[in-house]
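Appendix B. Raw example, untouched.
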Amino acid sequence: MTMATPFHFGSCSAMAMAQTRGQAAESFRPDRLAGPPSARRFSSAGMARPQHRSASQATRTQALSRVLLSKTRAVAVESNQVESPQQPPEKEGQSGAGKYYFVVANAKFMLDEEEHFKELMFERLRNFGERNRERDFWLVIEPKFLDKFPSMTNRLGRPAVALISTDGPWMTFMKLRLDRVLYAEFEAESLEEALACNPVDVKFSTPEQWVAPYPKYDYGWWERFLPPTNQQ
């Protein structure tokens, strides 16, 4: 004899309500309203947030990046790149009025004691050769223009040597690099006037014992940087 399965109206109603709620929840999922996964970002609560930036924010970010990059490039400059954006200097031996900058000290310090000066000069000369530029710097022993600076000459040991150039920014660098030198500028009607000097022999005593970690400079290394009429 087959027993009839009891029918519970309440349990069927509960199952139907649960199924209806599940379908409703499925149709109203928040992630479906927020668009595709690539266009949303989820918080810790699982709610979708749109990921976007305004045009003004993007523009400010790009401007800031350009400023930081320009500052970085400005700092990363080698010493042989310190030059002014001025017109190319006159060729050696050509006349030309203009402004000249110089640093000056006694000959012993400039030519025989300062351990970096020779390297700086030859590095500058090599750089000009690679760029095919006419030289705009010279060494002058006992320059005549010092007569225009009586307060400066009273502080100098003699004979004196001046490094002269038409490149103001580079001369500022050399003043800071050499340290124990005097710096000034003057006007001249020609290159010959700016480089005029009083002939004098430069002699240095040889030390009995050389203790520096580098070899002593050869006598006369500076002759290559003298004005053309004064080169031996």
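End of appendix B.
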